[in-house]
Structures are given as C-alpha cells and as structure tokens.
Protein 1
Amino acid sequence: MQDANDPKIIVALDFPSENPALELVDKLDPAKCRLKVGKELFTRSGPQLVQNLQRRGFEVFLDLKFHDIPNTTSAAVAAAADLGVWMVNVHASGGEKMMTACRERLESFGADRPLLIAVTVLTSMSAADLAGIGIVESPEAHVSRLATLTRNCGLDGVVCSAQEAPTLKAEQGADFRLVTPGIRPLSAARGDQQRIMTPSDALRAGSDYLVIGRPITQASDPLAALEAIHQEVATL
Ligand SMILES: O=C(O)c1cc(=O)[nH]c(=O)n1[C@@H]1O[C@H](COP(=O)(O)O)[C@@H](O)[C@H]1O
C-alpha cells in the first residue's frame, strides 16, 4: 500500500514558527511523507515557508480551509495553485456555488493544478457539537451529505474522519480521495479530537491519506514516532 511516489502520511506542521518546523522537516524524507501547512504557521511564515519546504523536495498540503463567497474563495484557491501546492482545501459548508467556482477557477492550471478537497465535519466535532450549531443529523449522515455535494461539484475528495471512510468509499467511489485527520496511534493522547482511529485501521477503512500532527510533532522523539507509524502502515 505504501508507494514512494504517493506517500500516505501527511505530517501536520502545527508549529508556532518556522524554526521548530524546519528543525523537524530537515530530519524527514519526502519519499515517506508529505507536509501540511495550516493556519498558525502560514499566518506567521507565509508563502516563503511553503516555497522553502518545496525546495527541500516536499509536496505541501496548504490547509487554510477557505470558506467565503465564491469570488473570494476561488481567488484564494488560485493563489494557492500559483504557489504550486499539491493539495488545497475549502469548507464544503460553503456550498455548491462556492465549491464549483473554486473547481472552475483551477481548470486554467491544467494537469499541474492542486488537488481540491473539501472539509466535511471537523474531526473535533461530535453529534452534540453539531446539535449546538443546529445540525440534528448524525455526524456520519452529515459527512455523507457534504461528501455527495462535494463530488457533485467536481472536487477531488473530502477531509473526513476515518470512521466515515468505509461508507464514503462505498457511496462516492474509489477515486474520490479521503483525507483523514484524527489519527491516533494506540499510545497517543486524543487531545481535542473526537472521531479518531489508529493509522492502520484508518488505511484499512479506506483512507487515502492520513493527516497526523501531535502524535508526531509533540512526541519526545518525533522521528521515532513517525518511523513507528510508517512501520505500522508499511505492512498493510
Ligand atoms: O483539514 C484538516 O487538515 C483537518 C480537518 C479536520 O476535520 N480535523 C483536523 O484535525 N484537521 C487538521 O489535522 C491536523 C490534526 O492534528 P493532530 O490532531 O495534532 O494530529 C490539524 O492540523 C488540524 O488542523
């Protein structure tokens, strides 16, 4: 299942600044993982950091979870494509017009365009959290609804919990990418994540890519933690 041209592990670089991020990155191998740059690090270090990671040979998932009116969001997605990132995401709850505008805007980038995926229900949210914002269907049902909308808008896949992966693979087909955060090796703390799964269970469930942050970045030996996860999934 592991392929050096398509590493399944995406390390979430949730660091407060560039220096600790690069300290870890310089020990990593682009054949074994991709890197995710999210809101905190991007807000501090910006596009230069993304380019820095790309120069080191890594493909970058720019996780800014855009959610705005169609014109604004599609322009932001085009800016991400100009940066040459491998993957970019928006919130599916931005709706059909927003997602369609983003997909159309990327057409001019041809085969070099980033993968465009949509966040369904954040993995930190439980049924009670959804009820708190007026969504009474279960997380699983709401994820399925948003995944169908996302696929109908022509996007490449969704961010979801690995717990929803079997259903989504059956409903949306094998080519629709499932990017799953909320990954927790058995020994790792859950933290603020609600809908979690171990790395090997997530891949068995149908996840295409595993987004993993704190179990690696906050481990006493991040490299050993990544290697242990790599070994766990390499045997699948
Ligand atoms: O889009 C994401 O990457 C994302 C979506 C989601 O539903 N849940 C989620 O945790 N994430 C991101 O995935 C990473 C998970 O990090 P850890 O919980 O530390 O493994 C964080 O960078 C989150 O921002």
Note: The two ends are 6 Å apart (CA to CA).
Protein 2
Amino acid sequence: MTTPFQRELEIALSAVKQASQICRSVQAAITDEVLEKKDKSPVTIADFSSQAVICRALNEAFPQDPIIGEEDAAELHLEENHEFLEKIVAELNKAEIPETSPENVCRWIDHGGAKEYSSRFWTLDPIDGTKGFLRKEQYAVSLALIVDGKIVLGILGCPNMPFPIDETVTGTLYYTVADQGAFAIPLNQDDQEQAAFPIRVTTTDDFSQSRFCESVESGHSSHGHSQQVAEKLDIEKEPRRLDSQAKYAVVAQGNADIYMRLPTRVGYREKIWDHAAGVLLVQEAGGTVTDITGKPLEFDQGYELKNNQGVIVTNGPLHPELIQTLGELAINE
Ligand SMILES: Nc1ncnc2c1ncn2[C@@H]1O[C@H](COP(=O)(O)O)[C@@H](O)[C@H]1OP(=O)(O)O
Ligand SMILES: [Mg+2]
Ligand SMILES: [Mg+2]
Ligand SMILES: [Mg+2]
C-alpha cells in the first residue's frame, strides 16, 4: 500500500540530498564567488546550482507543478557573469547531472520562477541562510509542497547540522509529510528508510527553563524585542543564534523550545520559501507555529505571507503566554 505523497517524498528527498551535497562541496572550496542581488543580499554558485538541480528533478517527475523559488537566472544571462555561470555548469557536471549546459542550467533555474498561488505548487529556497553558508555556519536547502493552501510535505537539508542522536555525524536531512510525523536522517546515509529517526518537540511549560533561538542577523529579526520578551517571561538561558530554517529543526528536535522572528521594520513580508518546510516539520513534531499576533500562517497568498507579521514557533505549551506577552509589550503593532 502506498502512503499519500510517497512518490513526491522520494523524488524531493533525493533532489534535496543531491543539492545539499553540491552546497557542501562548494562551501569547502568557497573563495570570493558571490554576486550581489538587486536587494543587496548575496547569492553564490551554490544557491544557483541547488535551485537548478532541484527544479530539474521536479520538472522531470511532476511537469505540471509550478515552483515558487527564490532565485532566477536573469543575472546569469549577462555577459559580465559568464564565468560565474560556467562555474555553476562545472559544479553540475561534477555531480554528473545529465544534459548540463549553460542554456539548460538557466532554464532549470527559471523553472522555479512562479510567483502566483495555485492549487498545487512547490516552494524552494535553494540555500536559506546564504550569510550562514558564507560564514561556514548553518544553512538549509528548503523544499515544500503546498496543496490547496496546506503544506503537505517539507524537507530541510542541513549540511552543517549535527545528527540529533549522534553528534559526531555532521549533516542532517529532515523530512515530514502531513499526518505522518517528522523525521531526521543522516545526510550521508544511503539507506534513508532504515535510518529515519522520529523527532519531537520538548514538553516544558516553564519559561525559566526554556531556551529560544533567533536569527544571527539582527536585520532579519529584532534582537532588542526578543530580549524584552525574554526578560518579561524570565527566560534565563542565552538565546541560540543560528541562520536559516535550521532554527525550526532545532525546535522540532527539542534542542530549543522557542523560535522568535520579530519584525525589524514595518512592511516587510516573510517569503513562503523561508518558512513552509520548517513550519510543517515543527507541527508534525508536535509544536505550534503562528505569526506574532497568534494567527496561522497563510500559504495561499502567493510568494509572500501577505497577511502575517513575523513568526512565532514553540513546543506548544509555551505558545499562548508568549503571544500574550508580545501583545502586552506592543511588539505586535
Ligand atoms: N527584513 C527582514 N526580515 C526578515 N527576514 C528577512 C529580512 N530581510 C531578509 N530576510 C530573509 O531572512 C532569511 C534568513 O533568515 P535568518 O537570518 O533567520 O537566517 C533570508 O531568506 C532573507 O531573505 P533574502 O535571502 O532574500 O535576503
Ligand atoms: Mg537570499
Ligand atoms: Mg536563499
Ligand atoms: Mg531564505
């Protein structure tokens, strides 16, 4: 008997795994190969390679499915970036991706260029936490499938994350399917099915014993406001700061109890590819995710979470009081 989304899971896991391995190999060799995007954020050979590989695999298996991905190939068509494109092609050749050529690489990347909501689509962040990637810290390859506005499958490839039950193993692949639980497998393990380790959030309802995590970048989440919340709730432990959706994984596997993402400026809207996979992972591990006002995140609004502000992730028991405190401190206004 097949379980729902089994084929999607197989294809997506194998694509994210391959992309994560390419990212790892680029990270090991990284020098100064960074492009600056129009919004001044960085993008590397690994971001583009990861998006190309995953979109190629999804397009082959599910040609009808749109992909809302973070990157596009516009910059790669420019003559000045010709060498950069050649380096992406070289990475894909090294990974033995069939039919690799500059034209196909751009085509695959642009296959991830959907922007609009549809009844079934994938959302992809080929490297979430590019700044963490450049610092050789945490980053994640993030892929999720959304059907009728609901996240039904999520995968996070975290090449620098210790495996939850064996910290000597570096590199963890997290996956979840709605109503089927949340799991971790070592990124290097070949027999993924056998090694699947179910992950769970903590059960504490005591803020004084709890730990929260947040972005390294204070421009992505307000450290000042999280400090105020921590003081009000008597959270004594130091926050754990790490880049990317690895924060969702840390809560899902019980290494922290809370993840706060508090707006730094009015008008910023979170992008769906920065959250979808992580949200389902935490929910399936028993936790709760809302925005800072306590509203569920709405994944049927196109590429942004248009109707939400910030994100609050907890183990569940800590959620109501945390949302209430954000209101009392007027952080949600
Ligand atoms: N003002 C902002 N508020 C929240 N998130 C942001 C903001 N600016 C960029 N981001 C996104 O935060 C994500 C990284 O989060 P974290 O710091 O938690 O690792 C990136 O995907 C980044 O998007 P982008 O890569 O498009 O700049
Ligand atoms: Mg980016
Ligand atoms: Mg990214
Ligand atoms: Mg991102």
Note: The pocket of magnesium ion (ligand 2) is lined by residues 41, 70, 130 (CB under 6 Å).
